[in-house]
Structure prediction request, 358 residues.
Amino acid sequence: MSVGQSRRLGRIVAAFALALVVLALFVRTVGPGRLARELAGADPRYLILGSVAAVAAVLVWSEVLRELLVVAVGDATTVRGRRFRLAFLAGEFTKQVLPMGHASGPAIMAYAVSSTLETEYEETLAVITLADLLNLVASLLLAAAGLVVIVTTGGSRAPGLRLFAASLVAATAAVTVAVVLVTARRATLVRVVRLLAGAFHGTAGRAVPRLRPSLEPTTVDRKLASYFRTFDAVAADRLRVLAAAGLAVVGWLCYAAPLYFAALALEVSVAPALALFLVPMAGLATWFPLPGGLGGVEVAVAAGLVGVAGVGVGTAAAVALCYRLCAYWVVIAVDGVGAVSVLLGGREEGESTVPVEQ
Prediction:
């Protein structure tokens, strides 16, 4: 293992340790004995259903990307079947275990998919950007729909509703800015990228000489042109974009289901609308520098159940832990299988190309 790989592994281990400390503080605050009593009665049948729904969500989101990637690649066979699925799962695994995985998600997924399918990185990144924007918009629309149902059914006086509603407004504003930058304000985005590339060229480029060619102004301009050309070409295919948007909504419906099933496992009544609202809002915690938002998401879900639905603290914490078992731990286990398969497949291909001396 190289020095760089050792450092990256060390950062991941340190981030997981910090996340587990946050999780331990959460458990300690609620009370370990109290949580143990709540969790002891969990119905495993509902937890299995929640796990299946979470994995289904990931697979549906892979279809969102595949639907759009076909337009960019121009050959459906390239992004069809087991090879593409494993590449997507490998990208998801990396995103879920890195400290800033969700913030750098598009770049991580673009590397995983392009290196496995041998597609152009900039083109793949452009498609993934569009897919992520569709997924974000779908999550916000479903969260807004859930909020409307909660308010119209008498939940407007819940003490914690305003905080979560404010989070929805802030997230909507952030996504709107991102959409405007990629579509209507590209000149601003290009200037920012050029400034960052220039800064890294003089710093990271000196420390790592092999990075310098990719940070040259002409190279950056060429990659930006390829990125936007692909983005526009894919976005122009309205039928594909609509199909991908529909799949994004289905994916979020599946991803909200584990919270509903986790509540049923503990015999807690949680309305589907609350699950649709809370899951995207609690998911904002994944943007903190913790792997998969570990610790933060659990706190956010429990706080939402207490503040919006009036669930008891101990019960809400138990539901949050069951939800994360389905929507995080089971999912990264499945993603991990994909990551290992891609890694082993890459090694086999590499070994087959090395000449054997007689």
